[in-house]
Amino acid sequence: MKEHVYFVNAHPDDLIACMGLCMQLSADERFEVHVVNMTRGERGLSRQRVPLAECAAIRTKEEETVCGAMGLKPRWLREIDGEACASKEACQELADMFIAEPPRAIFTQWPVDRHVDHMVCSTIALNALRFAAGDIGGQLKTKTAATEVYFYAYAGNSIGFVPTHYFPLDEKAMDKKCALISKYECQNGVAMARQERMESLCHGQSVRTPYAEAYQSFQPYLPGKKCIFDQLITGVSPSPPPL
User: Fold this and answer.
1) What is the pLDDT of residues 164-213, one digit of tens each?
2) What angle do CA 26, 143, 230 make, to 5 degrees?
3) Which end of the chain is more exposed for a tag (fewer CB within 10 A), N or C?
């Protein structure tokens, strides 16, 4: 039976920070990958005065193209770009997905971020996990311990992010990742790919690989317990959390 892995993002194209890992997991027969976007990025072309509905349609199509190249079909919550506030309805909608197909691991956005939608996204992901487990007392409890939760971040927006795990990429994987990022044309995908290559190069230096993606674990680090990175990475050990 396949294990379910969720990438929960605020906007179409937020997947770029973890796309290498997403590519690897989607090609691995042990896992079923779900990409869930909180919004359709309705305000992503506001400077060009593109109406919200038209922008949403453009960005939805681009996300479907990118995910389709990985054999995935994105799913959508009903928050609005720039107006997201972790509504109970959105949290429950994602929780229902978790109940139907329980997550082995969840990857979502680092909550300390200058973009409020990114902060809200992580709240929705954690609330949905709490709802799905039936924990209504205000905190995550033992029922959620089997689910691994990891955050990813952006150098330009995120604050105080300290990686605990790295996912290495070789030149071929990085080229493939950049080719996919370039498909986000309305958001200047070529420039985003160039920036992501630079960030991945910096992360790669931390684990002595050509490139890498960085993640911070939300769940406690348990020595001896196999995490999802242990199953995927050969030759590079995830780093333990800082003391």
Assistant:
1) 999 999 999 999 999 999 999 999 999 999 999 999 999 999 999 999 99
2) 40
3) C
What's the total number of domains in the chain? 1
Q: Which residues contact 46 (CB under 8 A, 6 or more apart)?
A: 55
C-alpha 20/C-alpha 201 separation (Å) is 13
| Rounded Cα–Cα distance for residues 28 and 91 (Å) | 28
Please tell me what DSSP assigns to residue 240: P
Which amino acid is residue 18, in one-letter code?
C
Q: Are 35 and 4 in contact (CB under 8 A)?
A: no
Q: With contact defined as beta carbons under 8 Å apart, do 164 and 221 qualify?
A: yes
pTM: 0.92
Indicate the DSSP class of residue 216: E
Residue 198: inside a domain: yes
| Structural domain range at position 145 | 3-232
221 Cα distance to chain centroid: 20
157 within a domain of the structure (yes/no):
yes
Q: What is the rounded (10 degree) CA torsion for 89, 15, 48, 157?
A: 90
Mind listing the pLDDT tens digit for each residue in 26-68? 999 999 999 999 999 999 999 999 999 999 999 999 999 999 9
Chain mean pLDDT for the chain: 91
**What radius of gyration, in Å, describes the C-alpha atoms of the chain?**
17
Euclidean distance between the first and the last CA atom of the chain, given in angstroms as a whole number: 37
- Residue 211 in contact with residue 204, Cβ under 8 Å? yes
